[in-house]
Task: structure prediction
Amino acid sequence: MQQSEDIGSFFKENKDLVKDYLNLRLDIFKLKLVRMLSKFSGYLIWIIISLFLLFLFVLFLGLVAGFWLSEVTGSYIIGFGIVTLLILLKIVVLAIFRKTFFVNPIVRNIIAKLSNEDEPPTDN
Result:
């Protein structure tokens, strides 16, 4: 009987401390979530801009190669047809090796980033 009174009085005395502790843990969780979302959004914007610039580069490279091959072959159809086949070949190769080139490295990168969240921040 004495032990239950001791536990009850312990919780009554430390009720405010437990509330403060839980509120602090909730604040820490919110701050970690904000940090993670901020990093993610920064990476996402960087990836979108990089992909757009890469698209423009590939587009103009294809046009240059098409016009050059058209000049070499003497026909626009053959020159741009060769460039189209090369682009199609590249798409097929990327589709075949998508796990090796994209899926697995992205999964490893996400796991590494999430497992390092508990470590102190470094200057990145």
Q: What stands out?
A: The chain has a mean pLDDT of 86. The first helix runs from residue 2 to 13. Helices lie at 2-13, 15-73, 76-96, 98-115. Residues 44 and 113 are 15 Å apart (CA to CA).
